Amino acid sequence: MKILLSGGAGYLGSVLSGYLLEENHQVTVVDNFLYESNTLASYCNNKNFKIINKDCRDLDGLEREIKNSDIIIPLAALVGAPLCKDRKEDAESINYKHNLKLFKKISKNQIVLMPTTNSAYGHGGESEIFTEDSELKPISLYAKHKVEVEKELTNLNNFISLRLATVFGMSPRMRLDLLVNNFVYRAINDKFIVLFEGNFKRNYIHVRDVARAFVYCINNYKKMKNQIFNLGLEDANLSKKELCEKIKKYINFFYHEDNFQKDEDQRNYIVSNKKILDTGYNPKFSLDDGIKELIEGYKGINIKSFRNY
Ligand SMILES: NC(=O)c1ccc[n+]([C@@H]2O[C@H](COP(=O)([O-])OP(=O)(O)OC[C@H]3O[C@@H](n4cnc5c(N)ncnc54)[C@H](O)[C@@H]3O)[C@@H](O)[C@H]2O)c1
Question: Contact, 294 vs 170, CB < 8 A?
């Protein structure tokens, strides 16, 4: 398949590119390289791989690539509630308007695989379990845009939406702002974490399992088409406090709860992933696997540049 992957240089995209190439797809990444620029280095010798360094909003400049693609995976975005709050206009034009314009250019036979987010569920009740049919109550601008885009997506003829849990694990483009990645990093480097809203629960998924899920959607497209799926670990609906306890199994650190701050998007939910599991998809990497992997990976990442020791 010819696959157009916007945002392919990012945390998810730089892992997903490898998985798609292994399946012998032709992968074209469109990215304007907001962050590190060498995250795709290991794929450049693959004859099926191409990079276009461009803003994804330049849809006229990408006309040919869009037309020639069998599958489009629009990952490009300003990702996360704090960043979107800080850069409202860009968030609106990249995360929202650009996707709507892109969908207008998609023909009937082309497939869109869309990463959305389970922060769309907002703030749940004590034992409320969110399924794909639950009412969406996004709180942050980031989550609101994702919900609006998913609504438009469902008007297309050929789509799958994956509502991703909070992703964790090592990637060529590392994100230390993601909850698990952040806590493990701080446990190792600071030896303490001050928790706010420690009882707020979230669901989690390994970055490689997200990549595997996109590949799974392609290989099982007929049975999955035109549907929305939650994608997270069924045994990992954990509060921040429970996450700290898990990390404590591997790292000696101290955490303390103090509600000195509020989460930007007040995310607090338990999510059911039964729908995608029932299709036969199975995640391969547990939260424990991810924590151990991060401990290994962080041996090479530090912020010692501005200290003597
Ligand atoms: N990581 C998660 O936990 C998570 C959870 C749910 C959904 N998602 C979604 O998955 C997608 C990828 O997220 P990520 O974690 O890889 O984020 P990321 O920030 O690592 O990657 C985003 C990529 O998009 C590129 N980009 C941004 N604006 C662009 C523009 N105007 N033109 C071209 N490229 C542009 C950036 O350079 C970057 O490479 C996003 O759509 C995000 O909303 C991620």
Answer: yes
Q: Report which ligand 1 atom has the smallest distance to the Cα of 175.
A: 20
User: pTM of the predicted model, to two decimals?
Assistant: 0.97
Amino acid at 200: F
58-90 confidence digits (pLDDT tens): 999 999 999 999 999 999 999 998 899 999 999
Please write the tens of the pLDDT for every residue from 166-221: 999 999 999 999 999 999 999 999 999 999 999 999 999 999 999 999 999 999 99
CA gyration radius for the chain? 19
Q: Do residues 26 and 2 lie in contact, with contact meaning Cβ atoms separated by under 8 Å?
A: yes
Q: Residues with Cβ within 6 A of ligand 1?
A: 6-7, 9-13, 30-35, 55-57, 75-79, 94, 115, 117, 164, 166-167, 173, 175, 178
* Among the four given CATH numbers 3.40.50.720, 3.10.50.40, 3.60.10.10, 3.30.1050.10, the one describing domain 2-236+264-300: 3.40.50.720
